[in-house]
Amino acid sequence: MIADLHDVVSWVFVIANGAAAVLALIAHSVESVRGRHVWIAIGVGWVIVVVQTALGVALQIQREVDAGTHQAYGFVAFGSLSIIYAGRTEMRDRPYLLFGLGTLWVTGLGIRAMFLS
Predict the structure, then answer these.
(1) Domain total for the chain?
(2) Any residues with CB less than 8 A from the CB of 93 and at least 6 apart, and which?
(3) Long-range contacts of 3-6, Cβ-Cβ distance < 8 Å, separation of 24 or more
(4) Helix ranges restricted to H, 30-68
(5) pLDDT of residue 71 exceeding 90
(6) The whole model's pTM is what?
């Protein structure tokens, strides 16, 4: 049950964060695209990262599996969210670029974790 949900959410993770990253990067260049909807998309993508991490932890506890590279990528993706968020004050003049590239980074980590499972 948890394994199946973890598999499905992994695709939602990659698609939602990839789309949010592309939207933020477009918003960086095109002012008419900027707005609340970009931040909502990023927020939804990031919530999915947290859910996916929680599912992965539950799955690991349930199966009593030793941590491996797949889990490392998952936790790096989760940890990256706080690093990206912490950088917002330093990049306040280019927030769409920061969150777009940061969310793209998280998407890449999700894709890599999917290939390692």
Answers:
(1) 1
(2) none
(3) 3/59, 5/55, 6/52, 6/55, 6/56, 6/59
(4) 36-63
(5) no
(6) 0.91
